[in-house]
Amino acid sequence: MKTIFKISTFLYCVLFYVKVNAQELTKEDYERAKSFMFNNYNNKTAFNLYTTANWFKDNSGVWFIDYNLKGKTYKTVSFKNKKVTTLFNHNKLAQELSKIVDETISPLNLSLSNVERTKDGNLEFKFKNNFYTFNVEKNNLETKEEEKKEEENSFESTSPDGNWIAFSKNYNLFIKSTNDDKEYQLSFDGDKNYEYASYYGWYDIMEGENGERPKRFFVDWSKDSKYIATSVVDSRNAEKMYLLDYSIDSLYKPKLLAYYRGSPGDTTMVHIKPVFFNIETKKEISTKLPTNTHINSVSVRFSEKSGILFANYAERGFQTEYVKKIDLNNQKEETLITETSETNIDNFEFRVLDKQEKIVFLSERSGWRQLYSVDLKTKETKAITKGEYYINSLEFIDQERGVIYFLASGKETSNNPYHQQVYKVDFKKGKTTLLTPENLHHSVSFSKNGDYFVDNISSINAPTRTVLRASKTGKILAELTSANVDHAISKGWETPEVFSLIAKDKKTTIYGAIWKPTNFDSSKKYPIIDHTYTGPHTQMFPKTFDRGFMNQSLAELGFIVMMVDGLGTSGRSKAFHNHSYKNMGSNLEDHILAIKHLAKKYNWIDINKVGIFGHSAGGFDTGRAMLAYPDFYKVGVASSADHDFRMEKAWWPEMYQGWPVDSTYQSVSNITNAKNLKGKLLLVHGGLDDNVNPSATFKLAEELIKNDKEFDLLIIPSQRHGYVGDYRSYFIKKRWNYFIEHLGGRTPIWNIKL
Question: Quick one: CA dihedral 93, 96, 100, 104, positive or negative?
Fold first, then answer.
């Protein structure tokens, strides 16, 4: 009897524990989750999380919108006095607009666009598809006649001097004199599927069994109108990917759609041949530039000097990249930059500085993404910056002063290595100066002349402060807006918690963040969900304050949500990035370490209830998690996923999983590993996804069925890679409820309108 009593007591305690920790959800819980969706909080209950700078074309100042509970106020800063003022009298303008459109316009709910100053200091703007001029002193409003522009013919291009018009006919390139309308044929071997003066469109859809590729036209004139650069698009041997559109109401058979898109290792792809013509001789100028596939085609840009252009391309596999100088005057070619890597070259970028007779470029050859220059006279390459930090982007180049402004992360050791700060470097002296000393993240926009920049300063824990700064010194000239999240705080919201740990290499610090529900109770146990995207071209650590809400909706439904950047993602050292090369199947190892780290630190995290979701490459992660680590990850939702890289668009896997295609593609395929599924997996895909074709999701479903695995499949017939409108709402609700039921162990509610 004692034994029976003990067992009964134990079962009662277990059931009581489950009841306490898995209380049924109510509609109020869903409403709370809805309140943290972007369209419900952004500038409605949380204000000025990010402020967009709008620079006047005349360089007189900047305008922006300041939001609060009452509505929005248009404001401006004049560069003359650096003072923040209202852009116009909102009441007067609303009154004037109300008269014209014959409806009541709220002064604090105006939606204006294309705002510009006129020479006499008045304002021009667009409101409801009409243009107006507002006299800011007299508060008079006039309808402005939209300037009638001649309809541009997108299949023609006029030379800079106005003497020639380039066009294509019968797949060949022609030019026509604007003086006498005489036509000259420049190319002669063009044919269907071998088209001159064309370009490859990533989303060129062909309808029906023998559908035609949309007509495309492209030429680039030299600045002196003496030369034309263009390309031949060769699709004669290119294979297609296919889609079926079931979503058209008026059709009772699906519409067949096709597009040219090579997969890793394919040779049957669209090829692009660069071609050049001399306008005076009407002859083609031959070069040694290669005809490459559409994923590594040659790009060219003309110099200010007559007949000089610069060509850039990568070899297949992205381990060698070139910048070459081509002289069309004498057909001489010289290689200026040869970039090589044993893994891959990602995000190579260069700029030609004609006035300085230099090229500047970003390279990871030192192990960190740094700035270099090539002297076009001496051909000497020099490092402009040096250090163990990552240059994220070139923001502005002042050729006159010889100064480059850039964003970099990891330079200030006291700051989080993902937070970007603004620097300037004198590329003659090589002196680098920090312009934004705040140890936070800086999202910036430079004025057209580069004298000023607007800086959204924040972190995931520090509310956004938006300021105007002087580019020369970084001095703050005006305070524009400040984030206000008082309403969210009053509802119990707290900023996500940043955490760090040592990665799987046992030496590198990695960073992440967790979101908790606003009704968080530390005496309870919460399932944890990994919001993943380990695509090596990006990073997920939430750097800015506006991302503080991004996972809050899901957290409100009784979960801890985590994001972390493990080894192999971008924005750190090249060695950090290289961890994922030919090894994307191991990208989640640091995620597992992070979850174990958090569960050890916090007893309110239930390590036995781990979920995961992600979109696109994050969808691959989700499938990988459920199939490679089936005893750790219990529930997953994979949307628009590239479940087998061999079925993907060629450039992405070849960049990160390597080329030629080898056995690693087989070993990391979710399809190959379908037999390992143990938990609950929901596969979702848009039926018209022309970025990540849905075929891999279908193939994974087929393999799961063959292995007698229970899973769920949702195909959204009309949607492409991203889901929009009601379809997005449906998917979000489906994802919420999948975790609620299968990870949280509770009964979901469907009758909720998002």
Answer: positive
